[in-house]
Amino acid sequence: MPDVLMYADTYRSPELRHEVPIGIPDPFLYAEAGGEKHIAIGAMEIPRLSELGLFELHPSEEYGSDELVRSGLSYPEVRQKVVLRAVKALGITSAVVPETFPLWLADRLRAEGVELKVDADFFDDRRRVKTDAELAGIRRAQRAAEAGMDAARDLLRRATPNGGALEVDGETLTVERVKAAMFAAFVAHGASSDDIIVAPGPQGAVGHDMGSGPIAAGVPIVIDIWPRDNESFMFCDMTRTFVVGDVPQDVQKWHALAKEALDRAISEIRDGADGRKIFDGTCEIFENAGEPTQRTKEEGKPLAEGFFHGLGHGVGLEVHEEPGMGLASKLPLKAGDVVTVEPGCYRQGYGGVRLEDLVLVTENGAENLTRYPYDLIP
Question: Are 235 and 316 in contact (CB under 8 A)?
Answer without folding.
Answer: yes
